[in-house]
Design goal:
It is a single chain. Helices cover 74% and strands 0% of the residues. By secondary structure, it is an all-alpha fold. The protein is globular, with a radius of gyration of 19 Å.
């Protein structure tokens, strides 16, 4: 069961790797508007489930702390990420924000029943090194003038890692509540859009399909899969494996003609894949299944 849940959680990482492609193909819709639309679409599977099985609506009756953590995680992460990108260079802000997998691995030591091993940490750092190679391909230069943006990116990393770790503490809460988190995030994103942005709609069928794909997978099904994975799977492996998202995203962009292969990407592939395999070595030996039984 633990291995299966971990694999389900990994599907979220695979879906997140399509985020850049779908976003690039979605046209010029501003970020908060895109977030509002995508999260609304992402909530549709849950809404359909509730319509077909109304008795599951009772599962939405959860303590306030569950809703606070869920909404703060989904909306808070995106709000801080967009704020970081508005106030700092994308490369440096992206690298800081992508500290969250490492924070999940290290923070997992605070969870009941979890034991942080050296190979979890080394695997996560290898993934971070590979991510730096991908995101920082043109160099990295942290300028104090962008301190506010960097701070928002750091809070972004702590927000998503904190959400993931706290979600593990709510393992008895049904994944159905993610529908509510998505709806709330959509509404809050709409408020931010109306106050901060001008409305821009897709102008072609291809752009609308990209927005739909974004909502159904990276901003939809991925959050349901991640919720199940971190609650029931190996959160340390998922944390280290999360660095596969920028690598897979880059490979997808290469395959779709948005980039060119290089030795740097090959090295990043070795670091990220090797780091994930190292972090998962205990599960491959079978001890992870015993410990999770």
């Amino acid at each position: 069961m633990k291995l299966q849940a971990t694999l389900i959680g990994f599907t979220a990482i695979v879906m997140w790797s399509f985020l850049a492609l779908f976003t690039a193909a979605s046209g010029k819709m501003p970020p908060f508007q895109l977030s509002a639309v995508a999260f609304a679409i992402g909530s549709l599977p849950g809404i359909v489930t509730f319509a077909l099985r109304p008795e599951r609506l009772a599962l939405l009756k959860q303590p306030a702390k569950v809703w606070i953590v869920g909404i703060a995680g989904l909306f808070g992460y995106h709000f801080l990420y967009f704020t970081a990108l508005r106030n700092a260079p994308a490369v440096e802000a992206g690298l800081i924000a992508y500290l969250w997998p490492l924070l999940i691995v290290v923070g997992s030591a605070l969870l009941p029943g979890e034991r942080l091993r050296w190979y979890h940490v080394v695997g996560a750092f290898a993934g971070l090194a590979g991510t730096i190679l991908i995101i920082g391909k043109n160099g990295i230069a942290f300028d104090p003038a962008f301190a506010f943006g960097y701070g928002a990116a750091l809070l972004c990393a702590f927000t998503w890692s904190g959400y993931s770790l706290l979600t593990r503490r709510f393992d008895a809460v049904s994944t159905d509540v993610v529908t509510g988190f998505c709806l709330a995030t959509s509404l809050l994103s709409l408020v931010c859009h109306l106050g901060l942005e001008e409305t821009v709609w897709p102008v072609s069928t291809g752009e609308w399909l990209a927005v739909a794909g974004l909502g159904l997978f990276p901003v939809g099904a991925a959050f349901y899969a991640w919720d199940h994975g971190v609650k029931n799977g190996d959160i340390q492996i998922l944390g280290a494996a999360s660095y596969a998202a920028p690598l897979l995203s880059t490979l997808i962009l290469l395959l779709t003609g948005f980039g060119e292969p290089s030795l740097r990407i090959a090295l990043a592939c070795v670091l990220i894949t090797g780091g994930a395999l190292l972090a998962a070595s205990e599960m491959f030996r079978g001890k992870g299944r015993v410990r999770g039984a």
